[in-house]
Structure formats: structure tokens, C-alpha cells
Specification:
With 170 residues, the chain is an alpha/beta fold. The protein is built from five helices and seven strands, in the order αββαβαβαβββα. The chain folds into two domains: 53 residues, no CATH class; 97 residues, VC0802-like (2-Layer Sandwich), CATH 3.30.2130. Helix content is 29%, strand content 24%. The strands form two sheets. A five-stranded mixed beta sheet has the order 3-7-6-4-5. The chain has a two-stranded antiparallel sheet with strand order 1-2. α4 links the parallel β4 and β5.
């Protein structure tokens, strides 16, 4: 990804290259002058609707709700701790977990991480009230995990957010 992409995205927020080819990381920021919304999902929708040319170098955008750091290969354990309080938001909803584990190749199996997090979130939601349902058809929420090095980000992508053109959970 070129510096052209970084320059184009400047109005949307602060982005930078990562050690992984084609992957940028950053933070969207609302513009006071434009009265843009404040959360990353709404900011993305606002800018993409207003100036789609800013996103011409992007194939995909993953909104992140929170991050955590981890040591060694314990990304799954650390994510369980970080997601424990958010499991209640899945109550009564159908969901699945998708993870991109950059920097952990050969050390952590993606599918095992996804299964463990899905089971954990289901168990935690069952403690609150109406348990969530893990499934792949007609889901309400996709829990996206993006790992870059020793930092993990997570986002709860509901139907509305997944309807945005650049948000494509894999």
C-alpha cells in the first residue's frame, strides 16, 4: 500500500503502515467543521458517502471497538479477558467469530482461536439471560478479531455495519 493511500485517508483520521504488506492501522477522527459522527463506524459511513475517492486504495475496513495487548502466544486467553464484559451484548443474537492472526503464523491456529472465543462468548452470554447462538447463517453479529504483532483489536459488526461497502468480514 503506497503513501498515496495514507495521504488520501488524512481527512478521515491518522493511519500508518504495519509490518504486514497491504495492512494499515489507524484511528478515524471526526471533523468538527463537517460535524461528522464520533464512532468509527459512523465516521466511515459519513466519509465514504461524502468522498468515496478517499477510499480508492482500500479493499476492506474493519471497525475496531477495543484493543488489548498480549505476551507470547496467549492471544486467545487475553481476548477472553477483554471480551468478558461485552458478551452480554450478544444475548439472544446469532453470531460467529472471525480472526486474522498476523504475526502468529505457525504458533496459533486461527480456527482453534475462533472456536475458543465463540465458545467463551456463548458461555458468558448464557450467564446473563437469553444465551447467544453460534451459527453461520443469517447472523446478527460477526465478532472480528484483528491481530497485528502483539496487539489484538476486536469489533462487534452488526448487520448495519456489515452493510457498509468496505466492511467485509472474512
Amino acid at each position: 500500500m503506497s503513501t498515496d493511500a495514507l495521504a488520501l485517508l488524512r481527512p478521515v483520521g491518522k493511519f500508518r503502515h504495519t509490518p504486514y504488506p497491504g495492512v494499515l492501522i489507524g484511528r478515524v477522527s471526526p471533523s468538527e467543521a463537517d460535524r461528522t459522527p464520533t464512532d468509527s463506524k459512523s465516521v466511515l459511513a459519513h466519509w465514504h458517502g461524502k468522498r468515496p475517492e478517499l477510499f480508492k486504495y482500500l479493499n476492506r475496513f474493519t471497525p475496531i471497538d477495543g484493543t488489548t495487548c498480549f505476551e507470547g502466544d496467549d492471544v486467545t486467553e487475553e481476548l477472553c479477558i477483554a471480551l468478558e464484559d461485552r458478551a452480554a451484548s450478544l444475548c439472544g443474537q446469532r453470531f460467529y467469530v472471525r480472526a486474522n492472526l498476523r504475526g502468529l503464523k505457525g504458533r496459533v491456529e486461527r480456527q482453534a482461536c475462533e472456536r475458543a472465543l465463540g465458545s467463551f462468548l456463548w458461555e458468558q452470554s448464557a450467564k446473563h439471560r437469553d444465551p447467544a447462538v453460534v451459527g453461520f447463517d443469517d447472523v446478527d453479529v460477526v465478532v472480528m478479531i484483528e491481530v497485528i504483532g502483539k496487539r489484538a483489536g476486536f469489533g462487534f459488526l452488526n448487520r448495519e455495519v456489515r452493510g457498509l461497502e468496505l466492511v467485509k468480514p472474512r
